[in-house]
TrEMBL record:
Functional description taken from the UniProt entry: Acts as a magnesium transporter.
Family: Belongs to the SLC41A transporter family.
Membrane topology: Multi-pass membrane protein
Name of the protein this chain belongs to: Magnesium transporter MgtE
Keywords, in A-Z order: CBS domain, Cell membrane, Magnesium, Membrane, Metal-binding, Transmembrane, Transmembrane helix, Transport
InterPro entries in alphabetical order: CBS_dom, CBS_dom_sf, Mg_transptr_MgtE_intracell_dom, MgtE_N_sf, MgtE_transporter, SLC41_membr_dom, SLC41_membr_dom_sf
Membrane-crossing residue ranges in chain numbering: 287-308, 314-340, 361-382, 388-414, 426-449
Matches recorded under SUPFAM superfamilies: CBS-domain pair, MgtE membrane domain-like, MgtE N-terminal domain-like
Matching Pfam families: CBS (PF00571), MgtE (PF01769), MgtE_N (PF03448)
Source species: Marinomonas pontica
CBS domain boundaries: 204-263
Amino acid sequence: MPEQSTLNHLQTVTESLESGATMQIRYLLNGALPAQDVARLLESSPPKERKLLWELIEAKNEGEVLQYLSEDIGVQFMKNMDTERLIAVSEHFESDDLADLLQHLPEKVVKEVLASMTTQDRTRVEALLSYSEDSAGGLMNTDTITIRPNITVDLVFRYLRRHSTLPDMTDNLLVVSRSDKLLGTLPLTKLLVSDVNATVRDIMETEFTVINAETSASEVAQLFEKMDLVSAPVIDGASRKLLGRITIDDVVDVIRDEAEHSMLSMAGLDDDEDTFSPIMKTTKRRAVWLGINLITAFIASYVIGLFQNTLDQVVALAILMPIVASMGGIAGSQVLTLVIRGIALNQIGSTNTRWLLNRELIVGLLNGLLWATVIAALTALWFDNIKIAYIIAGATIINLLFAATTGTLLPIFLKKIGIDPALAGSVILTTVTDVIGFLSFLGLATIFLI
């Protein structure tokens, strides 16, 4: 279990720091541990310890460790490096990973790093920087092996032998014209069993999955999942010119990042939130959503205030009031999460929204009837007041129906107007279920009790 191993190493490092045994830590960070484990160790350490650990890593190992760090932490370290060190560490990065990090550095530094590269490497990175990091163009790697269609299999083998290593995740050779137009792919499995005298044109595959450079990273991940791909070529949509390829390891990163984004957005946190980020940075990030939540809380409180006279006369209402809001909030969150997931998977559109809404309304009604009966029975036993029991039952059904409607339609509406449903949906939903819960419960009580 890598996580448990990281915790064990973290404990060892913490004890060594407390005792001043830096030699042992230096040994762990510079050879005893793989670069991936060193990166996890840095990410699992508070800022002060993280800085000390980074200073103990030898310059020759910095680049290798940096490529495994999360983008937020990696950029923090790179911003404190001089240009010479940045140039040195950049040699360890794949072109796509380097482009992602350079986008967060000052323009002057980026120019100096690019100027230090060979013409070929600089052209590759500049091509990647021209695309959004959330697109296929920003996700792709320009390190590809291309061949012409008119050469023989024997010549392909000779060409491959001249490479000391093949790019990672190479499962296909890409067949291109002299103008780099993508013509087909040649799977290595097919190459190995083909007649050495056959030409590439004879054995290449002309039906294959290709990705436009402007395609979103989310769509790329869905395509890889649907087609069980290991890699896929990326082209310029207009000219069909080969630009690079995307490999499964990059897609796994996209899937993980999207999962983290959804989880953190539900709590109003940035998707690059560092578990051990500094106090002030964390405070600023969270303060915004606490402020938004405060506004929504005042709205709910205002609704309650409208029924102050009712609450003064029937104290039981104040005790029971949170139940209605809570039931609506939970029911709405279940629907909201399901719909956001469906949107992310491109499963929800104009053709099936009505069916989904009807389904959720029926589910909300059935659950409302079930739990309204339970709540009413408990209320009648508790307060010996059958009217209040009927009122809270009715309010529960009303709020669960509103929760189903809001949970279904809200994320679809937010997506349509360009707002991330995962980020704003839960805040709006909570406000709606609180307000409707209080309004229905206290409104019915005012009508039938006062």
